[in-house]
């Protein structure tokens, strides 16, 4: 961008297909245009299908930059207490900063949408109720993705040849890497499970991605 600014000036443009991209290369025109004329330039392309056709212009996240958008996005009174709580959470336990950031985002969204926040992510009754469904969902997911691995196993057993894929590679080497069960997770990771000393299973370090 620096080279483009030096060659064409502080404000230039380039066409990418049907879109015209305006490049603002220095601070002065950026402040003049995006602050002084924000009502004109602080916007984004219209999402015709998602914003108008499907939702009839009622979808908040698809609104253009206008008075209605500013009314709906006036979150400062909600963000301030959530920010204070974020700082306190990080000071109390710096190692859990990721969880603190997650809580901040959840607090703002829940307060804006439903007018509520939770003391923690562990004692909200809706969260606890949802966790009770976890085993059923896990069983369904395990059945779904394990069936894909079993299809590969049957193909290997019947033909003796394998497709060039991670599942067949790991299945052929179960004894070599002491794999007891193979699970293909929905995030695309193949997780071998190996015997634990107590007779259970644990994820192996011999895992790969699709």
Verbal overview:
This protein is of the alpha+beta class. It has three domains: 1-42, no CATH class; 76-131, no CATH class; 134-209, no CATH class. 53% of the residues lie in helices and 13% in strands. The strands form two sheets. Strands 3, 4, 5 and 6 form a four-stranded antiparallel β-sheet that branches. Strands 1-2 form a two-stranded antiparallel sheet. A hairpin with a 5-residue loop joins strand 4 and strand 5. It is extended and about 70 Å long. The chain starts with a helix and ends with a strand. Mean pLDDT is 72; it is low at 180-210.
Concise summary:
Belongs to the cytochrome P450 family. With 210 residues, this protein is of the alpha+beta class.
Mean pLDDT over the full residue set: 72
Quaternary status: single chain
Low-confidence stretches: 180-210
Q: What count of structural domains? A: 3
Cα-atom Rg, whole angstroms?
26 Å
Compute the separation of the termini in Å.
36 Å
Query: Order of helices and strands, N to C?
Result: HEEHHHHHHHHHHEEEE
- How would you describe the shape? extended
Put simply, the count of helices is 11
Number of strands: 6
Q: Give the structural class.
A: alpha+beta
Biggest sheet overview: 4 strands, antiparallel
Percent strand equals 5-15%
Q: What percent of residues adopt helix (DSSP H or I)?
A: 40-55%
Family: Belongs to the cytochrome P450 family.
GO molecular function: heme binding; iron ion binding; monooxygenase activity; oxidoreductase activity, acting on paired donors, with incorporation or reduction of molecular oxygen
Keywords: Heme, Iron, Metal-binding, Monooxygenase, Oxidoreductase
Protein name: Cytochrome P450
């Amino acid at each position: 961008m620096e080279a483009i600014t030096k060659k064409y000036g502080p404000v230039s443009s380039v066409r990418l297909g049907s879109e015209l991209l305006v490049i603002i290369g220095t601070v002065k025109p950026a402040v003049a245009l995006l602050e002084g004329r924000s009502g004109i330039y602080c916007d984004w392309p219209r999402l015709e299908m998602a914003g108008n056709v499907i939702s009839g212009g009622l979808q908040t996240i698809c609104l253009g930059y206008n008075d209605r958008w500013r009314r709906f996005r006036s979150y400062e009174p909600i963000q301030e207490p959530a920010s204070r709580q974020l700082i306190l959470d990080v000071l109390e336990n710096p190692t859990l900063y990721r969880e603190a950031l997650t809580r901040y985002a959840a607090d703002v969204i829940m307060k804006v949408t439903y007018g509520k926040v939770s003391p923690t992510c562990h004692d909200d009754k809706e969260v606890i109720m949802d966790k009770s469904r976890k085993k059923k969902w896990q069983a369904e997911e395990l059945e779904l993705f394990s069936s894909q691995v079993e299809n590969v196993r049957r193909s290997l057993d019947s033909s003796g040849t394998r497709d060039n894929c991670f599942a067949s590679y790991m299945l052929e080497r179960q004894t070599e890497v002491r794999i007891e069960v193979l699970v293909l997770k929905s995030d695309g990771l193949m997780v071998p499970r190996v015997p634990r000393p107590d007779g259970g299973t644990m994820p192996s370090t011999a895992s790969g991605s699709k």
